[in-house]
Design a protein that fits this description.
single chain, alpha+beta, FAD/NAD(P)-binding domain, five-stranded antiparallel sheet, 28% helix, disordered N terminus
């Protein structure tokens, strides 16, 4: 009897020790693990917690919200009537903030006006506001994610080489570079880059498909297609000595031919930082030359100015408190064309180099515009009115936290969204979200024409006839590859279709839908593919999502 008791105790100790060994290094376990710090990550976490499931957010970023809290305050909304659920809640929190007169620190509400992108900035009837300061957006996201069922781990970077453990076609855990391991039932990749998706062995693509792949018109190389004003409208020499090829090309001009129109490549549209600048003297940090400043990098801008181009400040869009959301505009601007092509697949170290190069380029461009005496005096005077905002990005040198990753990897999933869906040329099955923005691609490359002049290529803007559905299959990997991963940002779509989908409100919507599906799969102990669409649809509508438009 005594031997039996002793044996039982030893067995229990052995089992407990064994269990501890299996979980060694385990930092947290939750129903749903979300990798990313974007706006989609926030709405996904909030939705899952609202459905009573434990959530862990593993964020590479210290500050949550992605581009919505990193300078993109002049929201690309399209038709705001199809923005519902938690995305609308976010914009309602923004409205609530600015409804308080104390929010207007640097200007009066009456001085701001009501200008938005395609919509009024402030919709009093719907109690939404679409234009905002970065720190206000971040505060709204932090308020949303404050929930007892949500745990956030910040500045945790996925070990992309060996940090994803799978059992068959199911992810069991992810491990970060710091050694933290997170175990869950369903995983959501809410990054702009699709790093978890790629590390999990899910199919994806980078770059532009040829038009022939999906029978599209606006994909692939698009030489001579100028839908916006972001091209050289006059003949400008690309050479260091104008007209002399032997003198070499100016910086950031490719010597390679772009290829035939409609052909595919592995190139992606340009990145930039969405800057938050201010004119208020009491809130302004002067623009200075960045370390490594080289004025020769901006010779093309001088040549553009000499062509009588006057649109230097056309995309200094007003946001509250005498600030601006600065975006790219014109043939030579804040988009660092062609300097991001290896970013999607690059190592963290290489991405850091690319980001650093973009910072030097963009800071240098600001300084050049403010000081170069070869530019018109009015340009320099107006540029010197602007400076960095003292009350934005205060722990990052007043510079945005995130570079604008307009596209990186795109999943090849159960359903590939193409321009046919965006243009409403075919019926989209199993809607989980709606989009409405123009199919928009920024320039991809800068090259030399056969005539010997500089030109940009890749800038496309095709209006959509009406809001369109986004299929459930576009956020699901092929089921044979992974049965417990959902991808609401690097969705399964063609390059040109992604140009419309890639808007922050849409990412928030898709994040909520992804978490709804994940929560139902956990609740019903099924894979994400076994949840009947009708049940998912019912829950999405119940939670305020808009799935169709008439």
């Amino acid at each position: 009897m005594k031997k039996s008791i002793v044996f039982s105790i030893m067995l229990i100790i052995l089992l407990v020790t064994s269990c501890k060994g299996d979980n060694r290094g385990l930092t947290a376990r939750a129903d749903i693990i979300i990798y990313g710090g974007t706006s989609a990550a926030v709405t996904a976490a909030v939705q899952a917690a609202g459905m009573k499931h434990s959530v862990v957010v593993v964020s590479p970023d210290r500050h949550l919200g992605g581009m919505s809290s990193s300078g993109l305050g002049f929201t690309d909304t399209g038709n705001k009537e199809v923005i519902g659920g938690l995305a609308r809640r976010f914009y309602q929190l923004i409205y609530r903030h600015y409804a308080d007169s104390s929010a207007w620190v640097w200007e009066k509400r009456s001085e701001y006006g009501n200008r938005g992108q395609g919509n009024p900035a402030i919709d009093g009837e719907k109690r939404t506001m679409w234009i905002f300061e970065p720190h206000v957006a971040e505060a709204a996201f932090e308020e949303m994610i404050s929930h007892p069922l949500i745990k956030v781990y910040r500045e945790e970077w996925l070990d992309r080489e060996k940090g994803v453990r799978k059992n068959g076609n199911r992810i069991t855990s992810i491990t970060t570079l710091s050694g933290k391991t997170f175990s869950g039932k369903v995983f959501i990749d809410a990054t702009y880059e699709g790093d978890l998706m790629a590390a999990a062995g899910v199919s994806y693509t980078v770059g532009r498909e040829a038009d022939t792949v999906y029978g599209e018109t606006w994909n692939g190389v698009q030489k001579g297609v100028f839908h916006h004003g972001h091209y050289f409208k006059t003949d400008i020499s690309p050479y260091v000595i104008p007209g002399n090829p032997s003198s070499g090309l100016l910086p950031r001009i490719s010597p390679d031919d772009p290829g035939e129109n409609g052909s595919g490549d592995n190139k992606i549209q340009a990145y930039c930082f969405r800057l938050c600048l201010t004119k208020h003297p009491d809130n302004k940090i002067p623009i200075t030359a960045p370390e490594g400043y080289d004025s020769t990098q901006y010779e093309l801008l001088v040549r553009v100015a000499e062509s009588n181009w006057k649109e230097f400040f056309s995309k200094y869009d007003a946001i509250p408190n005498r600030k601006t959301d600065v975006n790219n505009h014109g043939p030579f601007s804040f988009d660092n064309i062609g300097m991001n092509l290896d970013y999607p697949e690059a190592s963290y170290e290489r991405r850091k180099e690319i980001i650093g190069e973009h910072i030097r380029y963009q800071k240098g461009l600001l300084y050049f515009t403010a000081t170069c005496k070869r530019l018109p005096e009015w340009v320099r005077e107006r540029m010197n009115e602007w400076g960095f905002a003292k009350d934005e990005f205060v722990d990052n040198g007043y510079w945005p936290y995130n570079i604008y990753v307009r596209e990186a990897r795109r999943m090849i999933g159960e359903y590939v969204t193409t321009e046919h869906d965006i243009l409403s040329k075919r019926e989209v099955p199993e809607s989980v979200a709606m989009g409405s923005y123009t199919m928009d691609s920024h320039n991809v490359q800068r090259y030399v024409t056969p005539e010997g002049f500089v030109q940009n290529e890749g800038d496309i803007g095709v209006k959509v006839p009406k809001p369109y559905k986004i299929s459930l299959g576009s956020i699901l990997p092929k089921r044979e590859e992974c049965t417990n991963l959902i991808v609401p940002v690097c969705v399964s779509s063609s390059h040109i279709a992604f140009g419309s989908i890639r808007m922050e409100p849409v990412f928030m919507i898709l994040g909520q839908s992804a978490a709804t599906l994940a929560s139902m799969a956990v609740e019903e102990r099924k894979t994400i593919y076994e949840i009947p669409y009708n049940e998912l649809r019912e829950q999405l509508i119940k939670d305020g999502q808009v799935l169709e438009y008439r």
